[in-house]
Design goal:
Layout (H helix, E strand, L loop, with lengths): L4 H9 L7 H13 L3 E4 L6 H12 L2 E6 L6 H4 L1 E3 L1 H10 L1 H9 L4 H10 L10 E3 L1 H7 L4 E6 L6 H13 L1 E4 L3 E4 L5 E6 L7 H5 L2 E4 L5 H11 L5 H14 L10 H13 L7 H11 L3 H12 L30
């Protein structure tokens, strides 16, 4: 579908996802090689959004498996509905009696019953979970296995067969092989180390916090009603906050939420009061909020925030030495 990675960049942009050359290249190669993609990086940098944008750009259904501790096959692959199977057996008991009534021997009765076994062992009793839904889909889909690092190592090992052969074994039905290989995107927040076996089966992509210019483009695209000046100020504050020693850095989604909040408050600039009142949109730990407020208190002149204040002061990652908070 895509001739090169630049077309992927354009397609993702059409879904309001700002891609880098690296992201677009990996997506292009995964599409051509039919390989799963393992995306790692801090929470909230757009890993899940990439899967959603990719599905929309290709006009495919997105099937999502949210991982968590204790996730097992019955929740991820399928569940056999034994109660439903028993109900069918009870309802069809009279019909079965008619079928078997004229049998002259137990062997003949067993043969007749065997010819009807598809009634009782079929996909009508199979409750498909996300993994099986992706494999049995009649059209290509995007399978998002979200936060695989939250699942147990045993479940991770279970995934290896699926990612290698795109087939699963169902004891009641046999082996089911994918008609169309799904595009598989796994995400990880690096809460634990993933196995080499899993990584070997995937193309690897690390997504970090965006640069200043990229994040500004994201804010302008997602919150176009925010003035250009205020958007630049907001992004500068977020970029500076990420250089502080915080328990949790503000994510891109929180930057967007903050930009929307500033619009709702009819803010025309980032004065000190507006910043103090809205910091909790960006920061979700009280210690982080207090640290940012101390940086606020150290400010002077026309700066709503200051880079002065001991440990909070860091080098600007884009070069140029120390920077103050935006005017």
């Amino acid at each position: 579908m895509f001739k090169d990675y630049t077309q992927i960049t354009q397609a993702l942009s059409g879904q309001q996802y700002i891609s880098t050359d690296e992201i677009s290249t990996v997506m292009f190669l995964a599409d051509k090689l039919e390989k799963p993609i393992l995306t790692e990086g801090p929470a909230g940098v757009g890993k899940t959004e990439l899967a959603k944008a990719w599905a929309n750009a290709n006009g495919r259904k997105l099937i999502r498996l949210q991982c968590y501790e204790g996730l097992d096959e019955s929740k991820a692959l399928y569940e056999w509905e034994y109660a439903k199977q028993m109900l069918y057996t009870q309802l069809l008991r009279d019909k079965l009696s008619e079928v078997l009534a004229s049998a002259n021997s137990l062997g003949e009765a067993a043969d007749r019953l065997g010819r009807e076994e598809n009634v009782f062992f079929s996909q009508r009793f199979l409750l498909a979970r996300p993994l099986l839904q992706a494999i049995t889909s009649t059209e290509p889909v995007v399978l998002l296995i979200d936060e695989i690092d939250r699942a147990d190592a045993e479940f991770e090992a279970f995934l290896l067969e699926i990612l290698s052969d795109f087939q699963v074994s169902v004891p009641e039905l046999g082996t089911i092989t994918a008609t169309h290989k799904p595009t598989v995107i796994l995400t990880s927040n690096n809460t634990r180390e993933l196995s080499e076996a899993l990584k070997r089966r995937c193309l690897y992509l690390f997504i970090d916090y965006p640069s200043h210019d990229s994040e500004l483009r994201i804010v302008k695209m997602r919150v176009p009603e925010l003035s250009a000046k205020l958007a630049a100020q907001a992004v500068e504050v977020v970029q500076q906050l990420r250089q502080m020693d915080l328990k949790k850095n503000p994510s891109v989604s929180e930057t967007i939420d903050w930009a929307k909040s500033l619009v709702m408050l009819n803010a025309d600039g980032l004065d000190r009061q507006t910043l103090e009142n809205t910091l909790t949109v960006l920061l979700k730990h009280e210690s982080d909020v207090q640290k940012a407020k101390r940086a606020l208190g150290a400010g002077g002149g026309g700066h709503p925030l200051s880079r002065r204040g001991g440990d909070e002061r860091r080098d600007d990652p884009r070069g140029g030495g120390r920077r103050g908070w935006p005017n």
